[in-house]
What we know:
By secondary structure, this protein is α+β, with helices and mostly antiparallel strands. Helix content is about 60%, strand content about 15%.
Amino acid sequence: MLIAGEKAVGAIVNDLSMSQPQVSKHLRVLSEVGLVSCRAEGRRRLYRLAPEHLRPLHDWVAKYERAMNDRLDRIDDYLTELQRQGERQ
Length: 89
């Protein structure tokens, strides 16, 4: 919900069709681990992603993404070769 930008809790509640206490609990946990940040605007609290804290997760996933892409490339090469062999016969 926050990838598009900053949102108030009420907007997140409406978008997710969850109760306000559930959304607030999730946001509190995400705030505690540094994945979202909050700022006050009057009585509202606005939340936004803290992408700098997502970097370690991105780097970890990237290792596996490269390995998976390499495997998929090899499968594609293998299937292409099988198709060529079938066309020769």
